[in-house]
Amino acid sequence: MRRFIGYIIITVIGLSGCTGDSPLSDVVLSDPSLIKPVITLEKSINAHGIANQKIEVWLYDENEDSIQLKDGGVTVNGIPMERRQSFVTHAPYYGIDQNRLPVQPDEDYTFVITLGDGENYRATLHTPEALYAFNVPAIHSRTLDMTLTWLQADTYPIYLNYQYTYRREGEDADRLGERDFYISHPEEGVYTLQASAFQSPDHISHAHFVLSRRKEGYIDSRFRPGREISATFSIAAESDIVD
Question: Do 200 and 229 belong to one domain?
């Protein structure tokens, strides 16, 4: 886990919002064209088998500052979402805890954004199938191709993110790198990573893999361009690379 702390920090900052509090938070809004919702559902299983999830709604103005609705709010599947603040920027957003609403595969989620005048605007999403039993060798020779396997029932494409630790000749500190691969036929449950992936750059010592599937849904077109709703399921595994 220590080897990939750089990626974790970047992810946390990115998901916590990069904006401030919008002046529109002080206004009773009735015009959806002033708002760009970005709705995210995520369910992840890390390389140690620990599951995490999030359901968040960010409402952005034209300057990408985040809006907290005055006299309005957001629900998901009929459950009110909480008003929260990013611990990085203190920008407002809406969230909900797992014990109130878990992120499930192959499930419908309906979000209702209510503006200050009482009008409702919907966003809907059917989550993809999850990925299960992701297996890679615990120890792998850099001279051999690696076979990665998983279980799932969906034909929806998935992505493989390959993060690796390496050290350049004459250096004492590890470096981090990554590559992405598109898997168009995940129903086969197998992917072969060529040995060359472990040979350049030199001295790759550890590999961290993440399989992910992302699916988008529908969101009311009266909101600002750039609006989106998506669900991402991911599962991770690790391997030590040896000569």
Answer: no
Phi-psi region of 106 (alpha: psi -120 to 50; beta: other; left: phi over 0): left
Q: Looking at the structure, tell me whether residues 19 and 115 fall in a common domain.
A: yes
CA 32, 11, 161, 200 torsion: positive or negative? Answer: positive
Tokens (6 digits) for 116:
């200050």
Question: Do residues 77 and 106 share a domain?
Answer: yes
| Residues 112 and 141 both lie in one domain | no
64: left (phi over 0), alpha (psi -120 to 50) or beta: left
Are residues 191 and 71 both part of a single domain?
Answer: no
Pair (120, 143) in one structural domain: no
CA angle 212, 201, 183 (to 5 degrees): 25
Residue 89 pLDDT exceeds 90: no
* pLDDT digits 0-9 by tens, 9-45: 334 434 444 567 999 999 999 999 999 999 999 999 9
- The answer to whether 70 and 27 have CB atoms below 8 angstroms apart is yes
Same domain, 162 and 193: yes
Instruction: Determine the structural domain holding residue 163 and report its residue range.
Output: 132-213+236-242
pTM over 0.90: no
Beta-sheet strand order (sheet of 73-76) = 79-80, 73-76, 108-114, 120-126, 218-219
